[in-house]
Amino acid sequence: MSDELPPLPDDWSRALAVAAHPDDLEYGTAAAVAAWTAAGRSVSYVLVTRGEAGMAGTPPESAAAIREDEERRSAAAVGVHDLRFLGHRDGVVTEGLDLRRDLAREIRRARPELVVVTNHHETFGPGMWNSADHRAVGRATLDAVGDAGNAWIFPELVDEGFEPWPGVRHVAVAHSPQPTHAVDVTGWRDAAIASLSEQKAYLAALDPRPVAEQARDIVLMTTGGEDGPVQVRFEVFG
């Protein structure tokens, strides 16, 4: 990882992190979240699905409850206690007005200055195609930031009690193949590993190795490995 990226702007006190699935934010981004909450910043999570299609051999109706519980534990491990599940169907999330409206509602509810969202690009990197859910949620979130600040888009949200919120200063895209900024997470990798380790059933369904070993390898890979700068990288808009 490059040590030349500028730091993420710090002119914010509230962040809203949006992801398609439980576990998406735990793949490294949680290290930045841990640093932020320890510094007294407020971070909320929105999960578009309950991840019910993500566990081979476990029917969606059973997996949903497991994954929601694991995500709540993961969030708590990095100081996040405000999280919502929107209930869109895992694996077939549609980028459209319904999703934009739901996300605009959550932005108006949380009133963040920083919105964090997982990668909306077609790839994670060379040879790594991004999932349809990730692409849909990422793109819809970028659009919803504008929607949240415009009184004439989704006026029904005002009727629900959610006034426009034009106060988002920055959108930070995690795991982007085109990073522009970085957050120094020196000292916070253990918190991120603990957070991802709470995804016990999910990780066990993916790989027979011990969950703690998987979590450590993933967080090291996404925050800089054993050597070099320890950082989480973002593509920042605004």
Could you walk me through the main structural features you see in this protein, from its secondary elements to its overall organization?
Helix 2 (60-77) runs antiparallel to helix 6 and helix 6 (189-197) packs across helix 8 (211-223). The protein has helices at 29-38, 60-77, 97-110, 132-148, 156-159, 189-197, 200-206, 211-223; strands at 14-19, 42-47, 83-85, 114-118, 123-125, 128-129, 170-174, 181-184, 231-237. The strands form 2 sheets. It has a 7-stranded mixed beta sheet, with helices on both faces. Strands 5-6 form a two-stranded antiparallel ribbon. 39% of the residues lie in helices and 17% in strands. It has 8 helices and 9 strands. The protein has a single domain (14-237), classed as Rossmann fold (3-Layer(aba) Sandwich), CATH 3.40.50. It starts with 13 loop residues before the first strand and ends with a strand. It is globular. Strand 1, helix 1 and strand 2 (42-47) form a beta-alpha-beta unit. It has 238 residues and is α/β, with parallel strands linked by helices. GO terms for molecular function: hydrolase activity, acting on carbon-nitrogen (but not peptide) bonds, in linear amides. This is LmbE family N-acetylglucosaminyl deacetylase. Pfam families: PIG-L (PF02585). One of its GO terms (biological process) is glycoside metabolic process. Keywords: Zinc.
